[in-house]
């Protein structure tokens, strides 16, 4: 069963994604989470605390995803690309939380805090890919390909007709011989 704190963060994510930051007032978040405003304030004493909670959630989910990248049976590169692609999905909701955080990335009071959290996500993935690929440039290339797929996921853009992630992985195997892509 989901606790009130997680329901509040889930509701905040939903409001940010579906309606933007302007709609994510404390009252709206409390109503969407089906908790009283006092219940929300018990977990998050202010809007800034709610933002911090969302950023903490992103960092936690990113760390868990990095562990999954490292332990993927078919290799880090294959996991990263498959879960970055439209429909691939990442366990633990990191994609959804990432999208919600992007919605608040241009807020003047939270901008640097958000950029710092997004930098942690980037560093987590790069470090996990580096565990598989000795060459940092190849690890970065693999990350950039995954990031491009991830952008398609976030924007709802499909892959080109007739091409899929397995086609991409097959080609990348030529360039990433150290990886079990």
TrEMBL record:
Database matches in PROSITE patterns: HTH_TETR_2 (PS50977)
Keyword Transcription applies: yes
Keyword Chloroplast: no
Signal peptide per UniProt: none
Name listed for the protein in its UniProt record: TetR/AcrR family transcriptional regulator
The organism's place on the tree of life at top rank: Bacteria
All residue ranges annotated as the HTH tetR-type domain in the record: 2-62
Cited Pfam families: TetR_N
Binding region for DNA: 25-44
Gene Ontology MF: a single term: transcription cis-regulatory region binding
Keywords on record: DNA-binding, Transcription, Transcription regulation
Listed Gene3D superfamilies: Tetracycline Repressor, domain 2
SUPFAM superfamilies referenced in this protein's UniProt entry, alphabetically: Homeodomain-like
């Amino acid at each position: 069963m989901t606790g009130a704190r997680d329901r509040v963060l889930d509701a905040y994510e939903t409001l940010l994604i579906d309606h933007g930051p302007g709609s994510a007032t404390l009252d709206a978040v409390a109503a969407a989470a089906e908790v009283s405003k006092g219940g929300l304030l018990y977990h998050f004493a202010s809007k800034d605390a709610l933002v911090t909670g969302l950023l903490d959630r992103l960092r936690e989910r990113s760390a868990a995803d990095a562990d999954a990248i490292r332990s993927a049976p078919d290799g880090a590169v294959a996991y990263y690309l498959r879960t970055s692609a439209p429909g691939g999905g990442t366990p633990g909701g990191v994609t959804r939380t990432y999208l919600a955080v992007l919605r608040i990335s241009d807020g003047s009071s939270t901008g640097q805090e958000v950029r710092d959290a997004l930098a942690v996500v980037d560093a987590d993935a790069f470090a996990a890919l580096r565990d598989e690929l000795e060459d940092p440039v190849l690890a970065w290339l693999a990350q950039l390909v995954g990031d491009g797929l991830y952008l398609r996921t976030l924007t709802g853009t499909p892959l080109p007709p007739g091409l899929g992630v397995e086609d991409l992985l097959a080609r990348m195997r030529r360039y990433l011989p150290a990886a079990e892509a």
